[in-house]
Amino acid sequence: MVTWLYNKRQRWFPAFVKNVFWVEMSTTQRSKGINVFFDGYVNLRTTLKQFVEHYENALRDKVEKERQTDFAFCNSHIPCISRYSMEKQFQNAYTIVKFKEFQEEMKAGIHCGISLNKKSGSNLEFEV
Q1: For residue 73, which of 53, 99, 43, 108 has the smallest C-alpha distance?
Q2: Measured distance CA(116)–CA(64) in Å, rounded
């Protein structure tokens, strides 16, 4: 009975997580994320009691890492590469890593030529 149920897990597992928002992550990505979270804290021989203790330690360490990241973010500054107010807004709102990603995208698009291709009523078509 248990083997049959386990073999059908791809059908019943989604029912348990259907109300959980996963930001477009696949089940494999979520599993890898959980493995990384517990890496160094638990192993195959960890008892349930030890798991609870290690889980608390893992959470404590995660919170501390987040605090350190927040501190580093608040105490560092990456200059803007343009004069666009949009970039300044992102600089103030994003983490350093996300702001760098945004800047890379901005660099890629900043040198694009844009011209109006076609106008039809309120619809505008541009060529980049």
Answers
A1: 99
A2: 51
Q: Is residue 85 part of a domain?
A: no
SS3 110: helix
Number of domains in the chain: 1
How large is the C-alpha radius of gyration of the chain?
24
Rounded average pLDDT per 10-residue block, the chain, 128 residues = 68 61 58 68 81 83 86 78 88 86 86 84 87
Nearest-CA neighbor of 106 among 91, 117, 124, 116? 91
pTM over 0.70: no
Residue 123 lies in a domain: no
24 is in which domain, residue-wise?
1-39
CA distance 77 to 88: 11
- How many angstroms separate the first and last alpha carbons of the chain? 60
- Greatest distance between any 2 Cα atoms in the chain: 69
| Residue 50, domain member (yes or no) | no
**21 domain-assigned:** yes
What lies within 8 Å, CB to CB, of 126 at 6+ separation is 114, 115, 116, 117
